[in-house]
Amino acid sequence: MNMLKKLIVGAITASAVLSSSALADLPNFTKLIKENAKTVVQIESHDLGRRTAERSTISPYGQPIPEDFLRYFFGTPPNGSLEEIPQRPSLSHGSGFFIDDKGYVLTNAHVVKGGDKITVSTTDQKEYQAELIGLDERTDVALLKIDKNDTPSVKIGNSDKVEVGNWVLAIGSPFGFDYTATKGIVSAVSRSLPDGTYVPFIQTDAAVNPGNSGGPLFNLDGEVIGINSQIYSRTGTFNGLAFAIPINTAMHIAKQLKAKGFASRGWLGVGIQTVNQDLATSFGLDKPLGALVASVMPESPAEAAGLKTGDIILQFDGKAIKKSSDLPPLVGSIAAGTEVEMEILRKGKEKTLSVTIGELDEGHPKVAEKSGKSVNKGLTVRNLSDEQKSQMKIDDGVVVVNVQQGSPAAKAGFRIGDVIVNIDNREIDDVKAFAKALKKSGDKPVAVLVVRGKRSLFIPL
Questions:
Q1: 160 catalytic, yes or no?
Q2: Active site (annotated) includes residue 81
Q3: Are 276 and 348 within one domain?
Q4: Does residue 93 carry a catalytic annotation?
Q5: Average pLDDT taken over every residue of the chain
Q6: Where residue 8 falls among pLDDT bands split at 50, 70, 90?
Q7: Range(s) of the domain holding residue 440
């Protein structure tokens, strides 16, 4: 019996020692939170007008996105129709953080997009009206500025060094509970999502909820390594899967937004698809690898470089392409005019091609001026490709790629995909002609001729 008691006491003691040791190994976030709490802000975006749904049910790969797959943190539905829907004035909540001492705030584009008024609140309960410097929807990054100097700013980390298993800390305002801190670990890196072709997301299990969107994700050194952006959820609340934009990606975009109000990205001009096991076998690969070129756009950098349908891109600018989703972020991050090499597989033989990156023409959105007027009246357009012109059997025009919420264009009934061919009896050849025609019209309503599907109609703008 004495021996049994000794064994039990020994087991309990060992368990206590192990428990104490395990607790000692857990990180203490107290100092990190105290040092960085003042760098985080609350953001309120006021939408006083009508809203045009900005999310599509179709992914960039042409596949439907499940309705419950992605939910933005402040409660915007993951998708919706493109019809204009009358709404009462709405208020969106999110988070952000100071990136310097000049009052610049980094947040998510979806938090502030379409807002007629943006309010930033600091830890001392003071409120500031923020100016939208610019936003980039493809990466979901927005840059704001408040009229305040000596703002406490975060330390910017290097998201390329993030590894699975690293501890992380998120600070934000879930459900309006300001400056809430939650911890977790990095679950995966370079995660691609159906609607995030230009973002290699950091996946974490840190608890984030509506209101966290745009807030910082810290490492144990107190450096920001990401911006909390999206969650996987069937309920709209945290379900163990959260996704953050790598800070390297975000800062690359922020610098462009600060300099010119919009972001430019590289363009290759190919349609790609995933290489599965059957395709890998048919192309002579031991395992699925690379990005399979399904199409090459005419007059594109890819065509000029000699890339052909059926080629498999194995390496781009010195970086291995393990899956097709690895390629777009790499191409998008390279400045136009840069020459890079890519390793391809063609008919079973590896080959090196040199390509000069072009600039993706996205009809960059203009930021509203301080007067509240937008030079494009809420419309973002881009030039039609030769292929689009041929399909639609028209010679010229520009295609609408975005309609700003609450804008004159949204109220007039414009839709994404509309092709504008004439403004006030002036033919619209390209984006420059579009901007010139609208600038000349000033505040006067003009008749805009639009091709929508198989019919044409005039819309007063």
A1: no
A2: no
A3: yes
A4: no
A5: 81
A6: low
A7: 379-460
